[in-house]
Amino acid sequence: MLGLIRFTSQIQVEMARIYEDEFVTVTDCAVKIKNYHFPSKKVKCIPVEAIKVVWFEEQDTSKCATKIWGKSTAAIYWALDVKRCIPGATGEKFNIVLDVGQKIRPGFTVADGEGFMDAMRSVLDYHVIIVDTINL
């Protein structure tokens, strides 16, 4: 019986994932930023209800202050992405910054900007502001 409960729980967790790549997982109730905390690389879990603003832009055209990992001058704490600051190595990746009502905003990379934003639009409330340039 215990094995059936574990299997059922695993299916529910799998079904709840709306978007996932090597940097982030979006479920219907949370955004889970991978490799966030230094030095443990633990996940930062942000409830969808806490998100007030989403900024996004392609890494190739980004003009905001970024870091490979840690706090930038723009009061953004960036999750680990060793290629974020290497020109030409970013490919089709996007930078994402979330306003969750705290002084330091979480920032992270996504591999598929369009797929991530589609997932976010499907879970965010109508009052959340979405900005297509990180102008912080």
How many β strands by DSSP? Answer: 10
The number of helical elements comes to 2
| SSE ordering | HEEEEEEEEEHE
Give the N-to-C terminal Cα separation: 52 Å
Shape descriptor: globular
* Secondary structure: helix percent: 10-25%
Strand content: 25-35%
Q: Which regions contain 5 or more consecutive residues with pLDDT less than 50?
A: 7-13
Main β sheet profile: 6 strands, mixed
Spatially, the strands of the biggest sheet line up as 6-7-9-8-5-10
| Coarse structural class | alpha+beta
Mean pLDDT: 87
Tally of distinct domains: 1
Rg (C-alpha, Å): 15 Å
Descriptive report:
The structure is a single chain. A hairpin with a 2-residue loop joins strand 2 and strand 3 (30-33). The model is unreliable at 7-13 (pLDDT under 50). 19% of the residues lie in helices and 31% in strands. The protein has helices at residues 2-16, 113-123; strands spanning 17-20, 24-27, 30-33, 44-47, 53-58, 70-71, 76-78, 94-99, 105-110, 129-131. The protein has one domain (2-131). Strands 6-7-9-8-5-10 form a 6-stranded mixed beta sheet, with no helix packed on it. It has a 4-stranded antiparallel beta sheet with strand order 1-2-3-4. It is an alpha+beta fold.
